[in-house]
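Researcher: Structure for this, please.
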Amino acid sequence: MSDDTVIHVESLSKTYDSGFQALSDVDLEIRRGEIFALLGPNGAGKTTLISVICGLVNASRGRVLVDGHDNVRDFRRARERIGLVPQELTSEAFSTVWDTVSFSRGLFGKPKDPRHIETVLRSLSLWDKRRNRLITLSGGMKRRVLIAKALAHEPEILFLDEPTAGVDVELRRDMWEVVRGLRDSGVTIILTTHYIEEAEEMADRIGVIRGGSLVLVEEKRELMRKLGRKELTLHLREPITRVPATLDGHRLTLADDGHALVYTYDGRHNGEDDQAGIAELLADLDAAGIRFKDLHTRQSSLEEIFVSLVRETT
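Model: Predicted structure, token format:
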């Protein structure tokens, strides 16, 4: 375990009384100060993993260290370092924003600190709503209150379970800014999400979980470099009706009614292999008398990569 590891998960498994195995030998390290996105289809084990780390569900096997504290043997010290924002919008409907956030701080035995509560509310654009009862707030504002409650006791780690579920696009982007601000202040963020663009926009690293097992954990940029399919589109000077037989060795398809050729190559190869393949293609095109006027490249999105990974593990 490295010095910058804030959460260490080792050989974690969870089997419920029904016999259903929700987690199977999960190993994971979360780095201090990063945004880590956990992706996976429904029932993959995302919420169970978070619940075990937070001490809400007992593991069948394995262990979890939170900032060096075993979350079973030293539950209190481990748990006080964690803020958890659940997916469900459950709250005390008739309490005010100020009261419910202040009460959450007291649950962790923290002394009253109005200045900290004010700082949290202001950072989440809730200060003007501090006297409002929760029942009067919009869904987006209620979700911000959940984050404020989770931050009330000054945790070092924040878990966000589907933080923007049911939130419109504009509020979703506002929430992204809030989360980035928390990360910039030193809080480690772990989020689960169904929105692929959310992970692509925000995460430093991405974990993909399926069937209770971690399929992959990777730096976002490295993941896209290694697994992302790339396309080189060549816009031709003159249209062609078919790809010449001399070019059969390349993965080429006609597009735009014969006005373009699309060359597909796999980012799993290293950059030198890619460059050599493209250079060979261009030479063969020239030999075949095919001229192009423009070209551009496109790399597959994280969503396409995710779908590919899930298919591979089905």
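Researcher: Any notable elements?
Model: The chain is about 35% helix and 30% strand. Residues 271-287 form the longest helix (17 residues).
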